[in-house]
Write a structure and sequence with these properties.
This protein has a single domain, classed as Response regulator (Rossmann fold, 3-Layer(aba) Sandwich), CATH 3.40.50. 44% of the residues lie in helices and 20% in strands. It has a 5-stranded parallel β-sheet, sandwiched between helices. The radius of gyration is 13 Å and the shape is globular.
């Protein structure tokens, strides 16, 4: 069964590139373009991993990360942050401490795919 990855990213071009690369690597991909839709999909679509931007309309990435990691139903879902350098570095550090990994834009897709694979290592499902 294919692993399901949810991309929560408001920049549609970046989301599309990620989607195409992840699908080419054999993953099922869901997309959300704002924080509220992303959190709803995270809680209803049962993703195996989430790629999360920090700056999002309607609900910020750190709030989504806090909500997911504080809820026993969702805290097991690995979250990898993908974010831009234009943000407050303290916010990036705070998110990185709670997440399972982080990448600054622009990022190397080969390294991102390796990090995703690492998150799934040891997962028998």
């Amino acid at each position: 069964m294919k692993k399901r990855i949810l991309i929560i990213e408001d920049e549609k071009e970046i989301s599309l590139i990620l989607k195409l690369r992840l699908e080419a690597a054999g993953y099922e991909v869901l997309q959300a373009f704002d924080g509220e839709d992303g959190y709803e999909k995270a809680s209803t679509q049962d993703p195996d991993l989430i790629l999360l931007d920090l700056i999002l309309p309607r609900k910020g990435g750190l709030q989504i990360l806090d909500d997911l990691k504080s809820d026993p139903k969702y805290k097991h879902i690995p979250v990898i942050i993908i974010t831009g350098l234009a943000q407050d570095l303290d916010e990036v550090r705070e998110g990185a401490l709670k997440a399972d990994g982080y990448f600054l834009k622009p990022f190397d897709s080969v390294e991102l795919l390796a990090a995703i694979k690492d998150c799934f290592n040891g997962d028998a499902s």
